[in-house]
Amino acid sequence: VKSSKKNTATVVINKSSEKVSGYQIAYSTNKDFKSIKKVTTTKTSYTLKSLSKGTYYVKVRPFTKVSGKTVYGKYSKAVKVNLK
Q: What pTM value is reported for the model?
């Protein structure tokens, strides 16, 4: 996770060795993820926009569609990013 522009953070995901339908990105200003926001993407890079200045914590998990249901994998470790 990197913050190169004001109020944005770019999340780059290591591609999973298993077949996945996409990734769910969870982010919060609290390291315990009490007030959490989630976005989903099918790409391995995603830019979080319109964020406030400060510290954010970001974690990612893969998901796959099985028989019309979404099955989620485990979250990655949380990564801390400071926004400009």
A: 0.90
Task: Say if residues 54 and 6 touch (Cβ distance below 8 Å).
Answer: no
> Distances in Å between the alpha carbon of 50 and those of 17, 20, 44, 47?
32, 28, 20, 10
Strands (DSSP E) contained in 1-84 are 9-12, 22-28, 37-41, 45-48, 54-66, 69-72, 79-83
| CA 9/CA 13 separation, integer angstroms | 13
Read off the pLDDT of residues 27-78 as tens digits, 9 standing for 90 and up.
999 999 999 999 999 999 999 999 999 999 999 999 999 998 999 999 999 9
Residues 34, 28 contacting (CB under 8 angstroms): yes
